[in-house]
Amino acid sequence: MRVALLRVLAVVGLAQLAATAVQAQSVKTLFEKYNMLDTFAADCTKPVGAQNVYLVHRALGEQVQRDMLDGPTSVYQVHVIESATGLGPNEIKVVMKSHRGGSNVTLVYRAERDRLRVLDSITDAGRQLISGGRILSSNREAPWFNRCK
User: Fold this and answer.
1) Per the structure, how many domains does the chain have?
2) Which of 31, 87, 102, 118 has CB 3.0 to 4.6 Å from 91, enough for a Cys bridge?
3) What's the whole-model pTM score?
């Protein structure tokens, strides 16, 4: 009985260590794993603009900065992604802090080889912006952002 209890405790301890190791992965490491450090746009052949926003993910130490550009010299939004969790082979949940005093946002991305899109977006105030890949204010599908090569 005592040996069985020790085995159970050892297995539980190893599981906790494995969970801690997964949580300890940096945002940068997860973005590299999901191939999300790059520049993305709905249409990379067209210039950046209000109707063709560019999304830039760049390493900032072990965190990631996310810029949304809506003009050649205009940055629409700037966030620092402070935490990230892999949810599956193609989904990642991120928590972003705004640099312009806006709400912090939690996103769930779907990342494929050369494109990504937001499946869910909710502010820290609890306002849901995107759910199930649909923009709630317009009921339109959230766009795919393609990797700009």
Assistant:
1) 1
2) 87
3) 0.79
